[in-house]
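Predict structure. Chain length: 327.
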Amino acid sequence: MANTTALGPAELRSILTFTVNLARIAGTIILEGSQAIQSASFINEKKNSADLVTEYDVAVENLVMSEIKKAYPSFKFIGEESYSSGTRTELADEPTFCVDPIDGTTNFVHGFPFCCISLGLIYRKRAVLGVVYNPFLEFLYTGVESQGSYLTRGSGPPMKLPLASPKPLPSLSKALIDIEWGSDRATPVIKSKSDAYLRLAADPAAVERGRMAHSLRTTGSGALNFCLVAQGGIDVCWEIGCWPWDVCAAIIIIQEAGGVVTSRSLLASENVGVDPFNLTPDILMGREFLAIRAILDTPDETVREAELRIAKEFYETVGDTSLMLRS
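Prediction complete.
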């Protein structure tokens, strides 16, 4: 393939075809690994029992790195396993793949069929292409900047996201919210998250700042959580303590489905003219994200006003998050 760092619509479509094929090949390894693990008697632990790593995590990343290097030798690479081993890639204008070989490792180890490979492409310091593939359910999510996002189920035709027409979102009390516990189970972290989740779920008559959301969901895969926001199945998803490779691909899938992604620091910015839903490189490479599905405007409120209202309501509800995220 030709080496180029100028990526227009045609080049992105070509890269999408390559990335989808790569995701499907990796999916075969993930399925094989899951079957092998279910019959294994020992599994190495990465950090604790909630964050398990296997040889397949490394095998998938090595495959992905090798194929990308052959097809696009000038592209840079950010991956979970290579990062963990000490490799650091500074975000620049050059095309950079940002990859989680198996997002939802704990699910993968336990045979819970909600994990995926996540392949994102960053160009000029913004996410421009994303492929998220769950080989267990055969759900393939794709998104390309200015070209829409889609869900392909099995061998069926691509379906444009969101799957249904957007609806208004009056408040968090009407929302299905996705949250995660993460792998850091230190007392300050877990208590801070528990208190925040209590307020999201509780009756305001019983708990101060309670929102009584329709319900909370915890699925164990940041990438698939975000894709569910793009799909319209989840109204709001909050990821704190995740890594860029967990959500990079899904961010562009959400944006192309009419949803938005922000963060507490971006929303709180005092810089005049800052768009709270325009992810800066620092935010894109950060560890806290709030995703909101596509919202329909109303006679009394624009889409942007609704997005800001929901985001502010969310952060007011969860309160101080300083103890939730440790380096």
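Summary: The chain has a mean pLDDT of 91.
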